[in-house]
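[INFO] parsing input record for ABC transporter permease
[DEBUG] input buffer:
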Amino acid sequence: MTFSSIASIFSIELRQHYRSRRTVVTVTIVTFVCTNLSFNALRVTDVARGRQLGTHDQFYLRSIGNDLFFPVMASVSTLQLFLVCFATLLGAGTIVGGREDGTLRTHQSLPVGRRAVFLGHVLARLTVVATVLAIVYGLTLVQAYRSGLTPSLTTGVTFIGVVVVHLAGFVVVGVALSTIRRRRSVVFAAALVAAVGLLLVSLPLSMVSPRLTLIGPGPIFSTLVASLDDRVYTAFQVAHGGGSTAVNFTVVEIPFYASTSAALLSQALWIVIPTVSGLIRYERCDIN
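[DEBUG] output buffer:
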């Protein structure tokens, strides 16, 4: 396996996505819906305009500024759920869809290994997700500037990167599931259950022990978003690193299990483990 063979499959798969009417229509609908949800959050929230102190959903805000616009965007639960389901379902169609339309057989006829084919397909789907996010949050930033806000462009780009990495974990979970079953309906149903279950898994884990909270993708995402601004912490970090009142909070020392480093480590594992398991399964399965 070489980088050039992965890049070759990636390029072929990306062109097929671009030419696929189903993919284009799906991406257009998802982009439209997510942009409207994002614009609505920008329009109705007071925090985005700097008129509210204290807590906002899972975040604690030390002071208010226009850059706190990004925790607000991360707190739009409907938007995040929609994006998570989209990313997981997109990943779920990787292998099972390739079997049905014959693209896997075509790609394996090329002088490349199965590993290159698998990774090329995964990267192509991650690129589709990243494109949707760039459009949605790019348009939201433009709308924010038009509304009189001045969020940092650098922070905006970093925020998009954080969301891409967050959703990458769901894409590869979907890909791993697509290597297990042959029926598209079964794989997609399992992907939806997995997407919702992963978002909710942090609650029972935190009840067992606070040290397990950052195993869940939701708290991982919130912690990484909070790290973009030193005036923002998650409620989890405040609870285990300080104290809070209705509108004020203090953070003395955040333990490692509630830190940004722990979140980065957990996020890396959420990407690597499903990718490796899916790759092993794909190398052993029958693609016909």
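[INFO] The beta strands are 54-56, 59-61, 232-234, 242-244, 249-251.
[INFO] shutting down worker
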